[in-house]
């Protein structure tokens, strides 16, 4: 029997929220919806297979060169259902080389196995990428802050001359009321954080006006980054439009479009990702991975995810095969004495940084809590690895709390990611080194920042 409110039970509620939001935004093709993988995760009759990722129903992803052959194989196997390729607008066709195949009511895992096995055609589900977890939510829900900004706002113009693009949920209306996100003139001028600014009220529930799940995530991430490195030039994209999630090929398309328009920055900060079918790298990100290799001045810093497990989380797990190009970031607990309970871990995680109870820019308003109060850790309920993890919270489901001053306290590998991004940016300014070289120094422990030194594992 399921214990109450584990990482897994939260997944199903989040999946439901994702479908409600996707429907309201008309964000998915036809009658498609988000389902839970891997195979059997949605079947109570098969026993307990933990849900690990969300994917698009009725579709598989293949390389465009394999489209015709894949359609022939699928028809030969079962001609009773339609199968066709989803066409992309002309301007997008050359930006990504993967294509979605609509396969109707066929069993998606049967089709994937058929293509992989019989014809050696790579095919995968179309996974949802979400702001830092296959668990489809941040490590915890935002709460009213108790202390000051965490990390504190640096008084030095760290990051000057360094460009960072953050792919996340965009910026909330009025984000620049926070001085560290706004332009500052004077002896040490600081550029305003720029990006996709949401319409006023876009982050609020239409029924009761409360703050939507995952709203403010991109603003919070940008705030953490600018506290560590206040002079960094930052652009925040709203690539994850469906309550902090997006389909892998669509997110990759937004990334490729943005980089084509703006040029490749020094650092791409991606506080998002997903677990995948059979732990394989994301097929939808293959073009990005290839082009990253062609842009030696750009580094990807990506969140390791908040599922508290050691299975690879993508695209962060690319750090294992291309460590010079990708840094994957796990989270430390607040006292810096070990890994946070929610942080993923494993050989593919490059570095751990503070990720519990960060305090930064959010949305002014009321947050309505989705999950029950807990007295134990969600990930280690019977044998806590440490006391005081952020899972333990006295707030009850349905409770509403005001988040004053448009600030919140929040936890997740999503927020450890901009700390590492900011530290790399600061180090680049200080040394004149390029981002990949700076990251190499960081990973070898040669980076020392007074406020955060000693916290690296
Ligand atoms: Zn915990």
Task: Give the arrangement of secondary structure elements.
Layout: H1 7-25, E1 34-37, E2 53-56, E3 59-63, H2 67-77, E4 84-85, E5 98-102, H3 108-118, E6 123-124, E7 128-130, E8 163-167, E9 194-195, H4 217-228, E10 233-237, E11 245-247, H5 248-262, E12 267-270, H6 286-293, E13 299-303, E14 326-332, E15 351-354, E16 358-361, E17 365-368, E18 400-403, E19 407-410, H7 413-431, H8 435-443
Parallel strand pairs: 8-10, 8-12, 9-10, 12-13, 13-14, 14-15
Antiparallel strand pairs: 1-2, 3-5, 3-6, 4-5, 7-11, 16-19, 17-18
Helix pairs in contact: 4-7, 7-8
Bound molecules: zinc ion (ZN).
Structure explained in plain terms:
The chain is of the alpha/beta class and 457 residues long. The chain folds into 2 domains: 10-130, no CATH class; 163-456, Peptidase S8/S53 domain (Rossmann fold), CATH 3.40.50.200. Helices cover 23% and strands 17% of the residues. It is built from 8 helices and 19 strands. It has helices spanning 7-25, 67-77, 108-118, 217-228, 248-262, 286-293, 413-431, 435-443, and strands at residues 34-37, 53-56, 59-63, 84-85, 98-102, 123-124, 128-130, 163-167, 194-195, 233-237, 245-247, 267-270, 299-303, 326-332, 351-354, 358-361, 365-368, 400-403, 407-410. The protein has a 7-stranded parallel sheet. Strands 4-5-3-6 form a 4-stranded antiparallel sheet, with helices on one face. β12 (267-270), α6 and β13 form a beta-alpha-beta unit. α4 (217-228) packs parallel to α7 and α7 packs across α8. The chain is globular, with a radius of gyration of 21 Å. Residues 447-457 have low confidence and may be disordered. The structure holds zinc ion. One of its GO terms (molecular function) is serine-type endopeptidase activity. Residues 159-443 form the Peptidase S8/S53 domain. Keywords: Hydrolase, Protease, Serine protease. It comes from Acrocarpospora phusangensis. Belongs to the peptidase S8 family.
């Amino acid at each position: 029997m399921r214990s109450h409110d584990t990482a897994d039970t939260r997944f199903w509620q989040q999946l439901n929220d994702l479908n409600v939001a996707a429907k309201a935004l008309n964000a998915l093709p036809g009658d498609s919806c988000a389902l839970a993988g891997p195979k059997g995760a949605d079947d109570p009759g098969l026993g307990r297979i933990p849900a690990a990722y969300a994917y698009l129903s009725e579709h598989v992803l293949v390389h465009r060169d394999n489209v015709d052959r894949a359609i022939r194989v699928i028809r030969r196997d079962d001609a009773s259902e339609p199968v066709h390729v989803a066409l992309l607008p002309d301007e997008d066709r050359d930006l990504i080389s993967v294509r979605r195949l609509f396969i109707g009511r066929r069993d998606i895992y049967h089709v994937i196995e058929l293509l992989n096995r019989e014809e050696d055609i790579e095919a995968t589900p179309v996974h949802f990428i979400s702001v830092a977890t296959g668990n489809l939510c941040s490590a915890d829900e935002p709460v009213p802050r108790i202390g000051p900004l965490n990390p504190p706002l640096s008084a030095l113009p760290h990051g000057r001359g360094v460009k960072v693009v953050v792919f996340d949920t965009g910026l909330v209306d009025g984000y620049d009321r926070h001085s560290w996100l706004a332009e500052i003139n004077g002896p040490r001028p600081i550029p305003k954080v720029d990006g996709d600014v949401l319409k006023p009220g876009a982050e609020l529930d239409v029924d009761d006006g409360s703050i939507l799940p995952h709203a403010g995530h991109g603003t919070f991430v940008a705030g953490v980054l600018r506290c560590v490195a206040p002079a960094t030039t930052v652009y925040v994209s709203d690539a994850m439009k469906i309550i902090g999630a997006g389909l892998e090929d669509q997110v990759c398309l937004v990334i490729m479009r943005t980089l084509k328009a703006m040029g490749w920055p020094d650092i791409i900060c991606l506080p998002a990702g997903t677990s995948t079918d059979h732990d394989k790298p994301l097929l939808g990100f293959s073009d990005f991975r290839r082009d990253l290799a062609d842009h030696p001045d750009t580094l990807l810093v990506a969140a390791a995810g908040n599922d508290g497990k050691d299975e690879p989380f993508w695209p962060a797990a690319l750090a294992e095969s291309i460590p010079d190009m990708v840094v994957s970031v796990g989270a430390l607990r607040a006292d810096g004495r070990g890994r946070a309970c929610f942080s993923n871990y494993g050989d593919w995680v490059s570095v751990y940084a503070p990720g519990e109870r960060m305090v930064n820019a959010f949305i002014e308003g009321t947050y309505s809590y989705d999950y029950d109060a807990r007295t134990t850790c969600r990930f280690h309920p019977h044998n806590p690895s440490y006391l005081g993890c952020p899972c333990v919270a006295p707030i009850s489901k349905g409770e509403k709390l005001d988040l004053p001053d448009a600030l919140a306290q929040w936890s997740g590998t999503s927020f450890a990611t901009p700390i590492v991004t900011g530290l790399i940016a600061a180090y680049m300014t200080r040394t004149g080194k390029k981002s990949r070289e700076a990251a190499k120094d960081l990973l070898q422990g040669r980076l020392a920042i007074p406020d955060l030194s000693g916290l690296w594992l």
